[in-house]
Amino acid sequence: MQAEVARQLQELHARVCKAIADPKRLLIINELRDRELSVGDLSEALNLNQSNTSQHLAVLRERGIVTSHRVGTNVYYALRSQKVIQAVDLLREFLVEDLAEQGRLSGATSH
Length: 111
Hints:
It contains 5 helices and 3 strands, in the order ααβααββα. It is an alpha+beta fold. The mean pLDDT is 92. It comes from Intrasporangium calvum (strain ATCC 23552 / DSM 43043 / JCM 3097 / NBRC 12989 / NCIMB 10167 / NRRL B-3866 / 7 KIP). InterPro entries: ArsR-like_HTH, HTH_ArsR_DNA-bd_dom, HTH_MetalResp_TranReg, WH-like_DNA-bd_sf, WH_DNA-bd_sf.
């Protein structure tokens, strides 16, 4: 039974990682960092058309990364948990460190 739970968790983990692997979705997550926004506001902030923004938001919603609610004709989105931001920020820190290390290594090998 525990093996089945572990397998399901790994599959969910991979699906969430796949959802946030898209650069536009990362931009959306960052825009939603501290506030909820409508599809129109997100589209404008990211210079995307509303249809494209809605498609990306649908993927994030299906994966449980964002929540939505309707106010009149507008649909507003927010992050379901700030842990998403923590995970994205931690991965970004790792990448920055990796790039810095590569810079030092390439600088050291060019001398």
